[in-house]
Structures are given as C-alpha cells and as structure tokens.
Amino acid sequence: MSAHSRTPNIAAVVAPSQPETHWWSWLQHIAGAVNEIIGWINRQTNSGQFAELPNSPQIGTTAVITDSNTTTWGASVAGGGGNTVLAWWSGSAWKVIGI
Questions:
Q1: Number of folded domains in the chain?
Q2: Of 90, 7, 85, which Cα lies nearest the Cα of 46?
Q3: Which of 30, 40, 57, 84 is close enough to 61 for a disulfide, judged by CB 3.0 to 4.6 Å?
Q4: What is the predicted pLDDT for the residue at 19?
C-alpha cells in the first residue's frame, strides 16, 4: 500500500471470485433471503384449546393454547388447565415458549 492510499469503509465484503458484473444476482439472493425471513415472522399462529390443535403439525409450528396445564418454559403442554401459553411443536410434543 502506498502512503497515499487508505482503507475504504466497506459494509459488505464480496469474495474476489464474485466479479462486479454479478452484483445483480448477488442482490437478488439477498432479497430472497430477506423475503423468507419476513414470511417466517409473519406466519400465522394457531390459537385455541389443546384438543383442537393439529395431530401432526410441521416441526416449529407455533400455537397459542388457551387451556394449558402448565406455564413452565420448555415443559410439555397438555389441555385441561387454566393457563394461556405460546407453544411450539418440537416433533414429539407441544412445548411452552412463552406466557
């Protein structure tokens, strides 16, 4: 580096293998990822009593359960209680993730 050069302020680093001519494709990939994140954030949450929940939901599905038997974070939910909790399907049980 010469005495007159300075390090530029760079917010994002593009690998040397990605020439400047491919910037549009790179930007489209970023936009696609942002749209997926927004879709995940805006997904619908089921709400109702435990008995009304789907039997085999997709892992990660969330639900507001209005008759939970527990409010303990991470505990498996069963119906019949008087608590309202936010729960997610772990693949084997509905687990409390919020009250």
A1: 1
A2: 85
A3: 57
A4: 59
